[in-house]
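Here is an idea for our session: we take a single protein and study its fold together. Which protein we use is up to you, so please pick one and set it down. Once you have written the record down, we can walk along the chain together:
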Amino acid sequence: MMDIVKTTFPIAPQGQLGYDVDEVESFLATARAAYSGGASGGRTASDVDSTRIRRTAFTMAKGGYSTAHVDAALERLEDAFASREKEQSASGSADATWLADARTTAEEIVARLDRPVGHRFDRVGFLTVGYHPADVDRLARRLQGYFGDGRALSIDDVRASVFRPKRGGYREAQVDVVLDAVVDVMLAVR
C-alpha cells in the first residue's frame, strides 16, 4: 500500500524540477514566526519583511514543490507583510516617512522611465543575453501610464511580467531592481 504524505504545496510533475521542499518549509516557518512576532531558528521577526519575501529564492530539486504554487503563496505572503508594515508605520511620524520614501522612489522610477526608448537601461555585451528591450519598453509605457496618468495597473501585472531573451538586451539585474521598486511603491500607496 502506498503511503500518502501531506505536503504544504503540490509536488512538481515528474520530469520537472521544483523548489527544494526543506528550504521552502524552513522559510515558511521563519515567516510564520516573524508574522506572529516570535522567533524561529535563531531568527527574529525583523529578519523577514515584504522585501525579503520578494527576493527569496529556492534551490531547484527533483521532487520539489510546484514553483507556480509556491510563487503564488509568496506573493500573498508579501502582500500580507506589506500591509502590516504599512499599518505599523501609520502610527505617528512613521507614516509621513513611509509615504515620503515611496514618493522619492516613484520619482526615481519615473525619471528612469522617461529615458528614450531602447535606452532606459544599460545593455549587456553583444554576446550576452539580456531582456528584450522592446518587451521591457512595452511595460515601461504601461508604468508611465500608471505613474503619470493614474491608469490601472496591478501589482500582479508587474510581478507576472516576462521578457524574451535577446543578445545585447537590457541588463536583467537592473530591470529587476526597478521592477522591485515599482512593487514597493504600489504596495505602499494602495
Observations:
- Residues 67-89 form the longest helix (23 residues).
